Amino acid sequence: MTIHHVTLTVTDVDRSMNWYRALLGEGFEFELNGPTWERRGIRWPNGTMLGFTRHESTADADSFNFTRVGLDHLAIGCADEAEVLAIAATCDALEIERGPIEDTPYAWVVTCWDPDRIAVEFFCYKPQ
Q: Is 1-58 a CATH 3.10.20.90 domain?
């Protein structure tokens, strides 16, 4: 069993689409709308799929809070240390706020924050 996709509630679908596309590259885009929400998303060639939903009831000034029940952060797997370092460099080039590159005993990690302050972690296990 694998996780098929993740859909995030956001304050601005276009802004989120642009942010993730700039950081992760182009992919197949999709759209689905309901009576009180709009959703767009991207599926990348590696199978990763993210959706971005704007509900009518979501306040424009709302922002993510990892201490509330629900999502703590989104983690995206990287192939190796070089890919983690490349993501950090891309964040820097795009002026995306990020934390330090973490070299833990078991993994390399870098975390950045999307426009709604959702923490997006890029993670690669170290070889055992």
A: no
- What's the CATH number for 72-128? 3.10.180.10
pLDDT digits (tens, 9 = 90+) for 96-128: 999 999 999 999 999 999 999 999 999 999 988
pTM of the entire predicted model: 0.91
For residue 34, the 8-state DSSP code is: E
- Polymer length of the chain: 128
Residue range(s) in the chain whose domain bears CATH number 3.10.180.10: 1-58, 72-128
Contacts of 37 (CB under 8 A, 6+ apart): 53, 54, 55, 56
| Span 16-65, pLDDT tens digits | 999 999 999 999 999 999 999 999 999 999 999 999 999 999 999 998 98
The two structure tokens encoding residue 72: 């703590």
| Beta-carbon-side half-sphere exposure of residue 77 (alpha carbons within 13 Å) | 8
